[in-house]
Amino acid sequence: MKGLPGATVFYQHEFIDEDTANRWYTQLTELETWYRPTLSMCGKPYVQSRYIASYVKSPSLNARYSGHSVKVNHPYPPLLEEIQRTVSERLGVGFEHVLLNWYQDGSVHIGKHRDSKEVIASLSLGAKRTFIMHPYMSNGEKKVVGAEVKRWVLGNGSLLVMQGDTQENWKHEIPKEPKIEEGRISLNFRQLVHQKR
Ligand SMILES: O=C(O)CCC(=O)C(=O)O
Ligand SMILES: [Fe+2]
Question: Is the pTM of this model over 0.95?
Answer without folding.
Answer: no
